[in-house]
Amino acid sequence: MKQFTDKTKKHIILMILFAVSAFSLTGCSFSEFSEKFNDNFIKEQRYQYILDGLKNTFIITILAGLIGIFLGFILAVIRVTHDKKGSLKILDLVAKLYLTVIRGTPVMVQLIIIYYVIFASVNINKILVAVIAFGLNSAAYVAEIIRSGIMSIDVGQFEAGHSLGLKYSTVMVSIILPQALKNVLPALANEFITLLKETSISGYIGLSDLTRGGMIIRSITYEAMFPLLLVAFIYLVLVVGLSSLVSKLERSLKKNER
Amino acid sequence: MKDDNIIIHTEHLNKTYGDEVVLEDINIDIKKGEVIAVIGPSGCGKSIFIRTLNLLEKPTSGDIYFDDICITDKKTDVYEVLPKMGMVFQQFNLFNNMTIEKNITFAPIKHNLMSEEEAKEKAKELLERVGLSDKGDAYPSQLSGGQKQRVAIARALAMNPDIILFDEPTSALDPEMVNEVLNIMKELAKGGMTMVIVTHEMGFAREVASRVLFIDDKGIKEDGTPIDVLDNPKSERLKSFLESVL
Q1: How many CB atoms are located within 10 Å of the residue A48 CB?
Q2: A174 touches chain B (CB under 8 A)
Q3: A20, A140, A237, B16: most buried, per Cβ within 10 A?
């Protein structure tokens, strides 16, 4: 087996501590515990609520993440091009307005407005609504991350491209963006982790995500602690796992720089 | 402006930033084969001057002609003209995400000046010329300052330019690396390359330049051979400037 790094070890210990303290919170003997566990998760295949919810959470997070990166990327290039060249005035204004509105209102409000106002009269798949809402929201944050990445590239890179007669678009695509994206990859990955946690409000539009799966079990068994702690535990495992991937990524990027 | 030998010609060139005038009424002819050293106190506008020639700085008013093409005219496609003017920067500005070879071959291939094989062949040749034939696969971050600047010169040469502009090419180098760059520039000058060099290296200017410009207080104040300008300065300003740097 591969040797765990100190950080991973710490994470595993923390998670075990979490599980143990959760168990002691229930304040019941082992037989009571196993009975309640059976009641909440095994009986009538109630674990299925968690699994289905988890599946939906994954779908929403991944698709919304893709929309966020695609749209965020376009927004960032519009803003930077305006700042550097003074062109694209109207598009820049639209982008600025978009960023202000999206970053200035809670994502939950955006989600319910998109579901109850914008798609009020059409019968639309709730997952699609969530993907759109979280995708549009994430795009605003991704845009600012990528923009900061582009702005951090030395202006000399643009100038060298210009001096060789390369067009702005060529310089942007072949020289600036590869460097900028590499610099902001960890920040983008962190944004993805935030997105994963934010999807937990999907229940507000009646969508069965992971969190809502726990809530449904609670409403059946009248037992809050077991399902909700399990939900929290699953999020924790996912986030810690993704975070350790991000730090691995950061390390390997640093190594490449030399 | 019928002289075939004139490669760059400026007319009433002005550059201002807001209210501040940086360059005022610059009129100059640069002839093919000339090696021009541009000297002057820091902040005098000599870097702005050389950066204006390839439009890194847009002149506020006035015209620049390159080979009789007015490049300040909005109708001119500057991307047709810029490949013929190379530039070497103080901070090297190699493309950090590309290998040394790719740094050299990228622009010529993009401009369809040569095929990929030809470009690679040319890069090999140029790297040999600047003494870095083993560095083709390295990345800029693995090179010393002097090596980076030699690659930057190779990158400019790969475009087969008619002129190369040098903006303080040795100012960011450790002292022991200055000569390796200056020697390559000397070779270029001997080979007949037209060069405009903003520099603080007075010894180099005296040895290599065919013409020296002294820029001070927004304009070209003295213009002549190294002997005229460096040994027989006319103005008090130039005299005190030369005293301060020598």
Answers
A1: 12
A2: yes
A3: A140
From the centroid of its chain, how far is CA B114? Answer: 24
User: Could you give the ipTM of this predicted complex?
Assistant: 0.92
Report the alpha-carbon distance of residue B43 to residue B172 in Å, rounded: 16
Q: List, in sequence order, every residue forming a beta bridge with A41; answer none if it has no partner.
A: none
| CB burial of residue A201 (10 Å; 0-12, 13-18, 19+) | buried
* Selected residue of B57, B110, B148 to mutate for chain A interface (largest A Cβ count, 10 A): B110
Contacts of A167 in chain B (CB under 8 A): 79
Chain B residues with CB inside 8 Å of A175's CB?
Answer: 95, 97-98
CB within 8 Å: A167 and B159: no
Which pTM value belongs to this model?
0.84
Quote the CA–CA distance of B53 and A247 in Å, as a whole number. Answer: 46
Per-residue pLDDT of chain A (258 residues; tens, 9 = 90+): 455 667 777 778 877 887 777 777 766 777 887 888 888 778 888 888 989 999 999 999 999 999 999 999 999 999 999 998 888 999 999 999 999 999 999 999 999 999 999 998 888 899 999 999 999 999 999 999 999 999 999 999 999 999 999 999 999 999 999 999 889 998 999 999 999 999 999 999 999 999 999 999 899 888 888 889 899 999 999 999 999 988 888 888 776 654
Chain A residues with CB-CB distance to B106 below 8 A: 164, 174
